[in-house]
Amino acid sequence: MDQSACKLTLVYPPAAEDHIVELLLNADPPLSGFTTWRAEGHGHDFGKASVQERVRGRLAQGVLVLILPRSRLSSVLEDIRSKAAIPNLTFWTEPVNAFGRLAQIDATETGVPAAA
């Protein structure tokens, strides 16, 4: 089984964010966490765009990024597909070469003064 990590990116209408977030927060087994933010999409389908979005030429979007074991990717995507059923949800995956947290280092160990 492939235990390498991958990055899953989801792009969706902002109104769908709470549903996607709740689904991922309740995943079993739990996922390690993810990040969301607001973005503007520059795509081809403006059929459901507001007048303002059509004039500006961009759609309001939500973006979610999740790092997970590649072995979980299929089941997470299937859960989203079957339980969320969100129109215009786009996803892609990317390999992750490294992932971790940088430890806080005491400035006296490095000789670099701490930021104020």
Polypeptide structure, described:
The protein is α+β, with helices and mostly antiparallel strands and 116 residues long. It is 28% helix and 28% strand. Strands 2-3-1-4 form a four-stranded antiparallel β-sheet.
How would you briefly describe this protein structure?
The chain is an alpha+beta fold. The protein has helices at 17-25, 51-56, 70-83, 107-110; strands spanning 5-12, 34-41, 59-69, 90-95.
Question: How many extended strands?
Answer: 4
Helix content: 25-40%
Shape: globular
Instruction: Provide the gyration radius in Å.
Output: 18 Å
Structural class: alpha+beta
* Sheet with the most strands: spatial strand order: 2-3-1-4
Helix tally equals 4
The helix/strand order is EHEHEHEH
What are the defining features of this structure?
4 helices, 116 residues, Alpha-Beta Plaits, 28% helix, 4 strands, alpha+beta, four-stranded antiparallel beta sheet
List the helices and strands and how they pair.
Layout: E1 5-12, H1 17-25, E2 34-41, H2 51-56, E3 59-69, H3 70-83, E4 90-95, H4 107-110
Antiparallel strand pairs: 1-3, 1-4, 2-3
